[in-house]
């Protein structure tokens, strides 16, 4: 009796075991992305669907927040226990994330093929203190977009090569009555303004930090802010620029209400889409201008990476997802939204076709990318600079005084 009971129990156990792999095969991972610029939410969902089709044992739960909420959401989730496995992070955060153990070091997971195939500049997005904290994913800088038709009507043959030329051309356009305010910027009190400011700092040969201390309050850092204030007060810049983020700039440019705009890669194909844009076919793009005697072009490093959080219980599955999302095949497929991190992609007609002008600008702009300061206290520094820019634009403080205040409030 006991023997037959044991046999029955064993049989039941084996039958149960046969169902275990199916019942417990699926691993769930949570991933945090941003709902703006570069890849759209729909595109990230489509990429993820392709991943889960190839990896049916991994379920990916996606969450999207505006860029402005990405940092805080990532940091706050760390202490909550649930949290995320994969997070999108900006080039400005690895120092802080590494110091506070937010992301794991994935240096040992990066293969030789990855090291050789990815553009050298892209690695700066995820590296800090000799270690890699993820894979670069969005390789980006700001370019100068211009409306070819408006320049032609104004009798301007070529887009500006210097920032002073930009102001001169904008004045011609304004004086001819073609546009009241020809330039549009994203100068809201947000990180967007710091990206525009950094582009100008790079043009004027400025420095953010020297020996770990603020150095932006004089030299090129001061010149850059003075340029912003002059552009704003001259009446050449759209007065709403002080509240604009990049999406606002895109909409104004697409409506034909700006002759010049500084923005990320993604605007090129969106502004050229006749379904949504009034300026389709008239969009010009060049690297951001330089300053006579100081620089030929200017550019900010606006790249982003995908990393595994230290709270993740499924780092292997998380890495599998990251390598799929950052793979050359995936990136080439979506190259009309964000240019690939892979060097050989730029020789692929599938990537370059229809956006030759953008690729030509990218080859110069991406090589000139200037970093925002690398410091674990970046958030404090950025907040202080955002405030200084706003105060200066609104005439509440002279640029030199505003930057001195920012240096004192930067936490450095």
TrEMBL record:
It is found in: Periplasm. Its main location: periplasm. It holds the Pfam family SBP_bac_1. Keywords: Periplasm, Signal, Sugar transport, Transport. Residues 1-25 form the signal peptide. It comes from the Bacteria. Transmembrane segments: none annotated. InterPro entries: Bact_solute-bd_prot1, SBP. Belongs to the bacterial solute-binding protein 1 family. This is Multiple sugar transport system substrate-binding protein. The lineage of its organism: Bacteria, Pseudomonadati, Pseudomonadota, Alphaproteobacteria, Hyphomicrobiales.
């Amino acid at each position: 009796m006991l023997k037959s009971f044991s046999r029955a129990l064993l049989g039941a156990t084996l039958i149960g075991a046969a169902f275990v792999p199916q019942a417990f095969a699926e691993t769930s991972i949570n991933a945090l992305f941003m709902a703006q610029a570069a890849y759209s939410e729909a595109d990230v969902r489509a990429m993820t669907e392709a991943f889960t089709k190839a990896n049916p044992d991994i379920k990916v739960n996606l969450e999207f927040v505006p860029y402005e909420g990405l940092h805080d959401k990532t940091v706050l989730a760390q202490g909550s226990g649930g949290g995320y496995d994969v997070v999108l992070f900006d080039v400005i955060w690895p120092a802080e994330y590494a110091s506070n153990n937010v992301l794991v070091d994935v240096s040992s997971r990066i293969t030789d093929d990855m090291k050789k195939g990815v553009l050298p500049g892209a690695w700066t997005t995820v590296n800090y203190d000799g270690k890699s904290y993820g894979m670069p994913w969005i390789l980006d800088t700001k370019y100068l977009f211009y409306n070819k038709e408006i320049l032609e009507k104004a009798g301007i043959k070529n887009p500006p090569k210097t920032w002073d030329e930009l102001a001169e051309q904008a004045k011609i356009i304004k004086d001819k009555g073609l546009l009241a305010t020809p330039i549009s910027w994203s100068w809201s009190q947000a990180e967007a303004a710091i990206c525009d400011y950094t582009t100008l700092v790079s043009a004027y040969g400025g420095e953010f930090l020297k020996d770990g201390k603020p150095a932006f309050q004089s030299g090129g850092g001061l010149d850059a802010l003075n340029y912003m204030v002059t552009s704003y007060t001259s009446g050449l810049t759209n007065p709403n620029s002080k509240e604009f983020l990049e999406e606002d700039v895109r909409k104004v440019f697409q409506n034909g209400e700006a002759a010049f705009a500084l923005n990320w890669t993604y605007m090129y194909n969106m502004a050229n889409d006749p379904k949504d844009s009034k300026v389709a076919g008239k969009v010009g793009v060049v690297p951001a201008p330089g300053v006579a005697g100081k620089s030929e072009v200017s550019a900010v490093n606006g790249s982003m990476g995908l990393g595994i959080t230290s709270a993740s219980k499924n780092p292997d599955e998380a890495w599998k997802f990251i390598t799929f999302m950052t793979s050359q095949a995936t990136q080439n497929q979506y190259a009309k939204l964000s240019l690939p991190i892979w060097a050989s992609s730029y020789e692929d007609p599938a990537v370059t076709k229809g956006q030759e002008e953008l690729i030509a600008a990218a080859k110069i702009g991406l090589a000139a990318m200037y970093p925002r300061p690398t410091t674990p206290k970046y958030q404090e520094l950025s907040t202080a600079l955002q405030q200084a820019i706003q105060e200066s634009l609104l005439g509440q403080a002279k640029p030199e005084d505003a930057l001195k205040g920012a240096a004192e409030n930067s936490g450095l």
